[in-house]
Amino acid sequence: MKKALVLSALSSALLLSFPAVAAEPAIAETAIVKPAKPSSDMFEALAALGKELKAAMGSGRGNPIPYLDQLAAHEYSDATREKVATVFGSKEPLNIRRSTGANGQVSYAFTAPAYHYLDSNANTISWSDLVLELQLDKAGRNMVSKGSWGSFSIADKDMAMVISDISGDGKQRRNAQNIWIGKLHGAIGKIVVTPANTPAVVLDALSFASNAVEHGKAVDIGYDARIKSISGFGEQVDDIHYAMRLLNIDMRALEKLTDTLADADQAGKTKEQKLALFAEQLKSMGKTLAARGTALEIDDFSAAFHGQRATIKGKVWLAPGSGNADFASLDKFGKKIMVRLTVKVPVALVTEIAKVVTARQATAKGETQSPEAIAQAAQTATDFIVGKMLNESVAKLDNGVLVSLIEFKGGKLTCNGKEMSLPTGTRPAPAAKPEAGSAE
């Protein structure tokens, strides 16, 4: 089951190798900096519960039936039972029932009854009945899954979040390399996030689908995610869509990668050590990825605002003809990354955003502007932005749409053929202080 997570990590690694993304240091830092753990009976109980279930599950490699049997038969330690009973009112908040059917079919039903808890720090957690069902053949090769969760919510003094109408289903087959081939689908009706003293942000009608297709010694993975709308602060972004395909992944190399990470997990290595192992394994399989022509095809990454839609399409891959020396370091590996993205932004979208910014600036100053004045100011801003992009050759105008071709090759970034400077990630050295007694 962990193969899907590794595939997602692999595709993310290809994207994050692109300097325009890697230029944001906060992204990388967030992945490794551990936040302070809240002092709460609820969080301590959930942490203890998760730790024991993870240990009982083991590596999760291969046939899932033995691992699921271990979960079903697991008995929590006395310390965890006490913590769990304090919060959930039961020493077994998650029930796992195993049953057998015709032809040796094995079924597992995971259920958690509805619950609400408020701790001494005013942290609350609530959920409705949770149901997850798995059906496997006796060899653990074919699996059908489905689940539903009416709602889940969590809140503290700073923020509240409610997730409702959660569902999922799948039909998969585990191949000889322990990769799950087949389809998965998930949906969330709505997510509402309400920070303290701030209007709610609402994500409406979320869906996700994946499909793994095997061909020879390789596998293709397709992902499709969509959000009907995101609304908040008086505005709304509509039909956010992301469709991508990770093509020609060498299954043996992927198996080795996931096995190494699973072994590290079982050995209790830190997140930093696991990240270092992942980087080393990614370098070692780089030559195979390049030889096979493994690529991340971005079929569509788009969103609409005020009826105007911006899109990104493209491809991320490794340069062919790469040798071992090309993957000796992450710096050399990065220079083998090839990126080609086409970005399209309607000029009308620039104008709509300029209208919103102009109106909000006026409100912040306590001014009241007429719609005509806002439209005129927005048009002036649009003319300036579009003119600057055209003059600097970072975009071309095609029938009212700004089009930019962004390419990264051999460690160099270009936009419509014009080379762009890359951030170095280093800060200028501080100016030397004059020595005491020296003349200014």
Notable traits:
18 strands; disordered N terminus; alpha+beta
Short description, anyone?
The protein is α+β, with helices and mostly antiparallel strands. Helix content is 33%, strand content 39%.
The percent range for helix content is: 25-40%
Give me the number of helical elements. Answer: 12
Shape by Cα distribution? globular
Radius of gyration: 26 Å
Low-confidence stretches: 1-38
Counting helices, strands and paired strands, the structural category is alpha+beta
Give the ordered list of helices and strands.
HHHHHHEEEEEEEEEEEHHHEEHEHHEEEE
Structural overview:
With about 450 residues, the chain is of the alpha+beta class. It has an 18-stranded antiparallel sheet that branches.
What's the SSE blueprint?
Elements lengths: L2 H14 L2 H4 L2 H8 L8 H17 L6 H10 L4 H11 L6 E6 L5 E7 L2 E4 L5 E4 L2 E7 L5 E14 L3 E16 L5 E16 L5 E15 L2 E15 L2 E16 H16 L4 H14 L1 H7 L2 E11 L2 E11 L11 H6 L1 E10 H18 L6 H21 L4 E3 L2 E9 L2 E4 L2 E3 L20
Antiparallel strand pairs: 1-2, 2-5, 3-4, 4-6, 5-6, 6-7, 7-8, 8-9, 9-10, 10-11, 11-12, 12-13, 13-14, 14-16, 15-16, 16-17, 17-18
